[in-house]
Amino acid sequence: MTAVTAGTAAASTHQARFDAAVAADERIEPRDWMPDDYRASLIRQMAQHAHSEIIGMQPEANWITRAPSLRRKAILMAKVQDEAGHGLYLYSATETLGASRDELLDKLHSGRQKYSSIFNYPTLTWADVGAIGWLVDGAAITNQVPLCRCSYGPYARAMVRICKEESFHQRQGYELLLALSRGTPAQHEMAQDAVDRWWWPSLMMFGPRTTHRHTPRSPWPGRSNGIPTTSCASGSSTSASRRRRPSA
Fold it and tell me: Under a CB-based contact definition with an 8 Å cutoff, are residues 93 and 49 in contact?
């Protein structure tokens, strides 16, 4: 057997083991063998997710100095700190794949990697903080809960904590809007205006329809419609994360 033939056989064996692990809903860990396109897709998706967490905390952070009370300021500061932590979890998970954090940030700053476009919308009033928490974080939770069972172990474990913290953010946004809706007519109007402006961008977090794509399915799970998702789509901006893995 030549070296080329032996290498091909070894690669086929590794691929078979990888496919079997993913099909069995098992976790792929950093030291496990994985296909190059799986690794590259994970880096792209996890980096985009991390970038979205870091950029996403900034519109609300603008209101820390303008929060109407000490209680509201403390709540908002805690949320912003949580979002920064989410980004750090995800950058750390991406580094387990051999990616450099400096390189990821350089790609973000140069525009070679993206983040969720919803965070480009301005926060015009205090009520926007509540609308983001209730609607945007609520949409993110819907997208991200399936990621707690994705095939890559470090990503899945990070998402368990992230989703737990996001549930508090969603509740905080709901409580803020509820307080405004029960306040003065001006506060009620401000809350309604924020909901009117944010409900549609929140729906866009689920991404475009996938039924219109006609590209064939990939031979391994998590790459539906020709879009590589590695069973771990980035829930911050694409519809791919709605494709749940089969229940155990």
Answer: no
- List helix spans (H) across the chain: 3-23, 36-61, 70-95, 101-110, 127-131, 137-144, 153-181, 185-204
The span from the CA of 96 to the CA of 24, in Å, is 23
How far apart, in whole angstroms, are the C-alpha atoms of residue 143 and residue 87?
A: 16
Beta bridge partners of 28: 152
pTM: 0.80
Burial 169-179 (b: 16+ CB within 10 A, else e): bbebbbebbee
Three-state DSSP state, 152: strand
Contact (Cβ atoms closer than 8 angstroms) between residue 21 and residue 209: no
Q: What confidence tens digit (pLDDT) does each residue in 54-109 have?
A: 999 999 999 999 999 999 999 999 999 999 999 999 999 999 999 999 999 999 99
Residue with tokens 């998590």: 222
Assign 98 to helix, strand or coil.
Answer: coil
Q: How many alpha carbons fall within 13 Å on the CB side of residue 63?
A: 24
